[in-house]
Structure prediction request, 257 residues.
Amino acid sequence: CATNTPDPEVSVAPQANDRWMPSITAVASGASVQPPAVATRAVLVNPADVSEYGAPFIVDHALRGGFNAVALTVKTTTGNLHFSTPLPFFVRDDLTPLLTEGHRRGVKVYAALSVLKDWRRSLQNPTWRQRYPNQCPVGYACPPDYLSPCVAAYRPQFKALLGGLLDGYPVDGVILATAYFSYLLADQVDANAACVPLQGSPAWQTTLITDYVNDLTSFVTDRCPTCDVRVLTWPIDQSRETLGDWATQGSQDLYAL
Prediction:
């Protein structure tokens, strides 16, 4: 039976480096000695989990499971925001308690954000949506929740949101999710009017998404040089059903995970 009381026997931090000692030979030779790198193992956390169970419970169970990081979704695919901000669609600050408890117990805290899948902003700005070239495929509702990466107006807004997050919270890293074209487009092109001028160049979709993510990654590292940036995207040139390791190949989006 689970309780909300942290287990005092659970280690407050991964202990691998505490037990590591350099070799006598390395020290005697004057070589620069560094402890071995500890791989980041992160568990993804929904905002409702923080309000329902509490940050101590989540961090405690992350440590029990062998994780040394937690990744909280602070911008959902709906567009709701779960960190303190004056921007629209703020719901609740779930990041502060998780950061406080995580750092107290030696656990890294990542902020995860949905980039292009944003139901609220797509309703506000219908011309920003990714467009199916013909009619919606049979059997699909085709919800208007994907923003087109071809539309230039959205990216500065997302950067402003990112900047407020990085300026206000000492996060250890940022996860950029849903930076891709909707699976409903399949092998079709995004029919948003802003995409039309780009479609003559080879591999324009791959180039566009790559440049988009690289720009956002540079923005994060410029504002937070110590932040680790991870990308959960949908590889255009690979099977859309492939779920790889989150630290290398990536996955489709936070909702799927």
Notes: The helical segments are 16-19, 24-28, 47-53, 55-64, 95-104, 119-124, 154-168, 204-223. The first strand starts at residue 42 and ends at 45. Residues 1-35, 235-257 have pLDDT under 50 and may be disordered.
